[in-house]
TrEMBL record:
GO terms for biological process: tRNA aminoacylation for protein translation. InterPro entries: Anticodon-bd, Anticodon-bd_dom_sf. It comes from the Bacteria. Pfam families: HGTP_anticodon. SUPFAM superfamilies: Class II aaRS ABD-related (SSF52954). This is Histidine--tRNA ligase. GO terms for molecular function: aminoacyl-tRNA ligase activity; ATP binding. Residues 2-55 form the Anticodon-binding domain.
Length: 58
């Protein structure tokens, strides 16, 4: 589905965060980490650090 529909599905699932891996993120070796339960801004995180960053937030 579209990006918007995927984000709505993630929100409805009860997830606290969405990980965004688009073409740009893959090319740059990053991932977007978007909080779904508060108004914090999306973060760009190195893919290699993603698990550690998420673990620290949970």
């Amino acid at each position: 589905g579209s990006f918007k529909s995927q984000m709505k599905k993630a929100d409805r699932s009860g997830a606290r965060f969405a990980v965004i891996l688009g073409e740009n993120e893959i090319a740059q070796g990053t991932a977007g980490l978007k909080p779904l339960r508060d108004d914090q801004p999306q973060q760009e995180v190195a893919q290699a650090d993603l698990a550690a960053v998420l673990a620290g937030l949970l």
